[in-house]
């Protein structure tokens, strides 16, 4: 079939199918986010227009925002569908690099198609081209190499024949999933080639479930049988495997208390008697207390990030770490006893080897006892008498009014600690806390993508700093007709960093607006309500907790009825936080007041378990 490179690429996208966790067949690439420029409008843009009835194209307003929306889409579909994002060359392309970092850190698939300079080099230097004096082959798109799981630059049409199978492999592989970047020189997009029809034959990509090595499983079973006080840590890999229920059944069969990581949050119903709470710095004291006493930790589908491990101080020095992970890269960390394979398949085979074994009953009972203490603590934080609401209280209202199928998300600032530690889940896999890259601005852009993908109502929670960082996709969602609720908590600046700064003995500086340099005696303030309304959103304001409850209820109704984002703006306290009692390592200068606490905690940090 004689096609341009761009036409062939679009036809291939259309031919790719995916099987969801519940067995439905859906498009692998459900849509394209696009901002056109001279580097992609005539090549890829023309090819997409020819198939506009077969693959939706959504117009965004920042390239970073579009790509973050694609990341949010991938998370909401449990990595079973992949958003495609195209930009022109130069600044448009580079705007997507941050979003690629988000996808890479969180192991989420997204296909990035930045335009590139002319492969022929005939008109060089072209508009928006950065010339590299010592390397004529380099373009700004080489910046994607550091944040892509797979990178290629298509300089001849026939190169698609070898690269597209690799694109599909990376985007659908449970061990290697992440961003793929295909840089597309604008002249090559328009070149024609006789492509074989077989390239466009429909293909359905089904979830791979690699079985673990039997010897590794046997060793893991032996370690667990020797345990008296084991805990189970569930990460994002459990979610992407669709193994949440199997993990709970495994815990029930063997009486093992369950904790969750950031990416694994809401895999377990909050009221389950084995649920000890979320683990780590932004987790709960209940999970952290059990982790400190555990003799064996079975970590499933997690890369054990520092917020989960409290910079590797949350576990006992004598702990035995057993990991089950589809990615060997993650499984072998810290000298763990590594079991490489699918979470669901691995747990099924492991439970067979553990027939008749269970943790000590008194240890099993500790989960509900410790979590009850944590619940009482959260109840106290949510209690309200008067004054400016706290983050914990706002989260409590959203939690109370949400339904089991609803979806809640955040990414940066103080809100991750409030959602992770304080949320009480009633639905499975209904939270997205982007704390792998903790990208300010993901909250709004990612919510646009999640709203496209998720059946229940999406609520995103963010601070004023994140809102100001990236808000243009509010208009994109309003224009496209994708409803969600955004709860904007205005605490007058980067309050969580001010907390870190001052908590370690630093002087207040450049975080809260009161501590920032200004040429005005009375600096201007942002009218978030007016701004969100100007972007096409329904807007509600609140100044008390009762106001928040009324405003959020109205926002839920308005978002669905009017098919656009609804924004709730509420002033919140800048110095009230949910504390899980765990340490987090940051560099503390010797002359600051926080250095003695750092020196005390550092020796307890696990180096290598082995």
UniProtKB/TrEMBL annotation:
Residue span, Thiamine pyrophosphate enzyme N-terminal TPP-binding domain: 39-128
Ranges annotated as spanning the membrane: none
The keyword DNA-binding belongs to this UniProt entry's keyword annotation: no
- Give the top-rank taxon of the lineage listed in the UniProt record for this protein: Bacteria
Q: Which GO terms describe its cellular component?
A: acetolactate synthase complex
Record key words, sorted: Hydrolase, Thiamine pyrophosphate
For this protein, the record's CDD domains field holds: TPP_PYR_POX_like
Which biological processes are named by the entry's GO terms?
inositol catabolic process; isoleucine biosynthetic process; L-valine biosynthetic process
Q: Which residues form the Thiamine pyrophosphate enzyme central domain?
A: 218-350
Residue ranges of domain Thiamine pyrophosphate enzyme TPP-binding in the record: 429-570
Q: Keyword Glycoprotein on this protein? A: no
GO MF term set: acetolactate synthase activity; flavin adenine dinucleotide binding; hydrolase activity, acting on acid carbon-carbon bonds, in ketonic substances; magnesium ion binding; thiamine pyrophosphate binding
Q: Which Pfam families does the entry mention?
A: TPP_enzyme_C, TPP_enzyme_M, TPP_enzyme_N
Q: Which family does it belong to?
A: Belongs to the TPP enzyme family.
Q: What is this protein called?
A: 3D-(3,5/4)-trihydroxycyclohexane-1,2-dione acylhydrolase (Decyclizing)
